[in-house]
Design brief:
single chain; 155 residues; alpha+beta; Aminopeptidase; seven-stranded mixed beta sheet
Length: 155
Amino acid sequence: MSTLLKDPLLHIQPMHVDDLDAVMEIELRAYEFPWTEGNFRDCIRSNYYCCVYRQGEQYVGYAVMSITVGEAQILNICIDPILQGEGLGRRLLNNLITAAAKEGADTVFLEVRSSNRAAYALYDSVGFNEIGLRQDYYPAKKGREDAMVLALNLG
């Protein structure tokens, strides 16, 4: 087990505009088609559930989720690629699920690239079920890629 997981300084906290430089560094390393800083700013401004995951001063990940009446939508969840596979994504995902439940959501939704088998396996392991497919949803090197739509019933 990584010493990172045992570190008492590892914590999840609200995302602020001041965090965006560090968030964008991870976003650009993690994704071929990343969000823009403006996307994150808009989510913070719209009072979405936005959080950063840190170990002391080091950012290890972040997430963005919208919560409306009865449902939550995970819009972005990311662990720094150099730290993936350490269980951090599961911890961050569980934080989102807990936050959604506290805000009264009955269901949590998300989309995942059809090719992202590791993320799909994580979502499946915590109880998400595939409920649909969005054809050509994501940009890809050669055109577009489908997204699997997943849902987790909190009831």
